[in-house]
Amino acid sequence: MIFDKSVFTDSYIEDCEVCCNPIQVSYSSNGNDITGFSADSIEQ
Question: Measured between alpha carbons, how far is 39 from 42 in angstroms, rounded to an integer?
Fold first, then answer.
């Protein structure tokens, strides 16, 4: 995964490389550093 730190918040859905279930990846940055990150299963 490559994060664009010039984008202050972003969220997208990606398939897990291990189990192939969808996960929602979200992150935030201050322009220089990643300040928040989460990866949550969206499998019902």
Answer: 9
